[in-house]
Specification:
14 strands; about 15% strand; Rossmann fold; 2 domains; about 425 residues
C-alpha cells in the first residue's frame, strides 16, 4: 500500500530545521516508521532497535553505534528499548549544534518508564512530535484547515460536502485510523486487534513495567473503553475490578505512556470560576475502542436505541476527538479542553487559539438538529468573550442558529 502523506510531516521538518534531534512518539502501528523512513523530509539513515542484533550492538557499544551519524541524520526506531543510548545521543549533540542530527521514535514514552531515571530527557535539545493514527482527512488526502476556518466562521458550501448519515459516521468510527486496518473487513479487523492487544499487554506492559496481572490489565483496558469520553473516576473504576487506586493509577499511567489512552484536561480560567477540574479520558483510536466494546459492524449499534445512545454516542465522540486533536496539535499555541460544571452544563471540546478566541464543539451522532442541542454552547457564549460554537452532526447541511452558533455535518471536517 502506498504511503499516505501525514499532516505531521510539516511539523517534523520545522522541528528539524532548528533542533538538533527530533523524537517522534505514538502508539504502535500508528505510522511512525513510515513517517520517518518513507516520508522523511530530510536525507537520513534508518536503523531500528526492533532488530535484536541491532539492539544488542546499541547496548554493548553506544559510542560506536552512533558513529553511523557522522554525516547524515540517523533515525533510531523504538528508542525506548535502549534508554541508556539517550545519554550517548546527548553527548554527541552537546558537542555539535548542527540541527537535524537524529530522529528518534518510540511507541512508549521512555521518560515515563520505571527505568526512565536512567535516560536523559534531552530537554532543550530535542523536538517532540506526537504522531496519532490517521484522520479521515489524511486518508482522503485533504489539508487540515477545518478548525482554522471554523474560528473565522468560514464553512464550505453545502454542495461541496459529501452526504453524511449515522451509518456512515458509525462505519468511520469502527474503522478508526490505524493504517493497517482501514481497509480490513470486520473479521480481519477483529483478528488484528486481538493480536495487537495481546502484544501490547503481554510484551510491552509485562517487560517494560513488570505488570504481570494480565487478566486485570485486559479488564481495565475494556473498562477504560467504556469510560472513553467520560470524566476520569479512579474510585469508581477500582470498585468495578475490586482493585486499589494505586494499582489502577499505575496501569493508567502505563497505558498513557504507550499512547493508548489520553487525558483531556478540563477548561478553567482565573476569570471564570465555573468549571470542573476533572479530566476526561479518551482511547486514542476509535477502532480499538470499538473492538474492546465488541462493536464490529454498524448493525451492532443500530440494533437497539440503547446501544446507539450509550456505546454509539461515546464511540462517535471518541472518533471526533481523534479527528480534531491532530489538527489542534499542528498549532503549537492552540489548546484543547473539555468543559463541565456542577450544573451538568458541558461542552465536549473547547479549543482556544493563539488569539485567545474560543471554539466550542459539541458532538451529536444523530441526523437531525434543533435549538436544544445548542443550549450549553449558548449559555457558555454568555460567560466568555470571543466565542463561537459548533454542533457536529450526521446531517447534510450547514445551518446557522444565530449568535455565532452553527450546525455542521461531520463530513465538513474533510470537505
Amino acid at each position: 500500500m502506498q504511503s499516505i502523506p501525514r499532516w505531521s510531516s510539516t511539523l517534523l521538518l520545522k522541528g528539524l530545521s532548528f533542533q538538533r534531534a527530533a523524537l517522534v512518539v505514538g502508539a504502535r502501528q500508528s505510522g511512525k516508521t513510515t513517517l520517518v523512513r518513507d516520508l522523511c523530509p530530510i536525507e537520513a539513515r534508518y536503523t531500528t532497535l526492533d532488530d535484536e542484533a541491532t539492539l544488542s550492538a546499541a547496548k554493548a557499544d553506544p559510542h560506536f553505534f552512533l558513529r553511523q551519524a557522522q554525516e547524515n541524520c540517523l533515525i533510531i526506531d523504538e528508542i525506548q528499548k535502549a534508554p541508556t543510548l539517550i545519554a550517548e545521543v546527548k553527548r554527541r549533540i552537546d558537542g555539535n549544534n548542527q540541527p537535524g542530527q537524529f530522529i528518534l521514535t518510540g511507541s512508549t514514552d521512555y521518560r515515563k518508564l520505571p527505568s526512565g531515571d536512567q535516560a536523559d530527557s534531552l530537554t532543550g535539545r530535542i523536538f517532540v512530535l506526537r504522531l496519532r493514527t490517521m484522520t479521515q482527512g489524511e486518508i482522503l488526502g485533504k489539508k487540515p484547515h477545518f478548525l482554522e476556518k471554523a474560528f473565522n466562521e468560514e464553512f464550505p458550501i453545502n454542495q461541496d460536502i459529501e452526504p453524511c448519515s449515522r451509518e456512515r459516521v458509525y462505519d468511520l468510527a469502527i474503522r478508526g485510523g490505524y493504517p493497517q486496518t482501514i481497509q480490513l473487513d470486520c473479521e480481519q479487523r477483529a483478528l488484528y486487534f486481538q493480536s495487537y492487544i495481546q502484544s501490547q499487554l503481554l510484551y510491552d506492559l509485562t517487560r517494560q513495567w513488570d505488570l504481570r496481572r494480565y487478566k486485570d490489565l485486559a479488564s481495565l483496558l475494556q473498562i477504560f473503553a467504556v469510560y472513553s469520553s467520560k470524566p476520569l473516576n479512579i474510585q469508581e473504576i477500582c470498585r468495578k475490578i475490586s482493585g486499589n487506586a494505586l494499582t489502577v493509577s499505575s496501569y493508567l499511567n502505563a497505558l498513557e505512556a504507550m499512547y493508548l489512552i489520553d487525558e483531556l484536561p478540563a477548561w478553567e480560567s482565573k476569570d471564570y470560576k465555573i468549571g470542573s477540574k476533572t479530566p476526561e479520558i479518551f482511547l486514542t483510536d476509535s477502532a480499538l475502542m470499538a473492538h474492546l466494546l465488541s462493536i464490529h459492524t454498524t448493525d451492532d449499534l443500530l440494533s437497539s436505541q440503547e446501544k446507539m445512545t450509550n456505546e454509539g454516542g461515546k464511540l462517535v465522540e471518541t472518533w471526533a476527538y481523534t479527528q480534531l486533536i491532530p489538527e489542534v496539535e499542528l498549532h503549537p499555541l492552540w489548546k484543547m479542553h473539555h468543559f463541565r460544571n456542577k450544573n451538568n452544563q458541558e461542552i465536549d471540546f473547547l479549543i482556544t487559539d493563539e488569539k485567545n478566541r474560543k471554539l466550542g464543539i459539541e458532538i451529536k451522532a444523530a441526523e437531525s438538529i434543533n435549538t436544544d442541542d445548542f443550549k450549553h454552547l449558548k449559555w457558555f457564549s454568555k460567560q466568555v468573550d470571543d466565542f463561537r460554537g459548533i454542533v457536529l452532526y450526521a446531517g447534510k447541511d450547514i445551518l446557522s442558529f444565530g449568535s455565532r452558533l452553527y450546525a455542521v455535518p461531520f463530513s465538513a471536517l474533510w470537505a
